[in-house]
Amino acid sequence: MLINEPKTLPGGVVIEDKTVGSGSVAKSGKKIGMRYIGRLKNGKVFDSNTKGKPFFFTLGKGEVIKGWDEGIQGMLVGGERVLTIPAAKGYGKRGAPPDIPPNSELIFEVKLVEVK
């Protein structure tokens, strides 16, 4: 059950908080560790990180798709969120062959596990 109504950010990324965390906040410039499952609109999983070492990147520095840089801002460690990312904030017209077709809307279930 979602705890908040979905919120659409400028640019079209939709965020839905499933769990609000209680740890450090994800801010631009911070190195953060994530767990995630990425799906296409049809439900097909194209990528995931659910065990082992979390996926780390520096938020707001263009190391990931724009939808992640925008949609993960403000999360707290332990928080879980669903990101619905329009193609323009994902992989755009080119897609990411062979798994992500051109102009694909992406749905990510993300969990913030660490902020450094």
From TrEMBL:
The PPIase FKBP-type domain sits at 29-116
Would the keyword Repeat turn up in this protein's UniProt record? no
- Taxonomically, which superkingdom? Eukaryota
Tell me which InterPro entries the record gives: PPIase_dom_sf, PPIase_FKBP_dom
Alphabetized SUPFAM superfamilies for the sequence: FKBP-like
For this protein, what reaction is catalysed? Answer: [protein]-peptidylproline (omega=180) = [protein]-peptidylproline (omega=0)
Which residue positions does the secretion signal occupy?
Answer: none
EC number(s)?
A: 5.2.1.8
Q: Which GO terms describe its molecular function?
A: peptidyl-prolyl cis-trans isomerase activity
Keywords, alphabetical: Isomerase, Rotamase
Gene Ontology CC entries for this record: chromatin; nucleolus
- Protein name as it appears in the record: peptidylprolyl isomerase
Organism per entry: Thanatephorus cucumeris (strain AG1-IA)
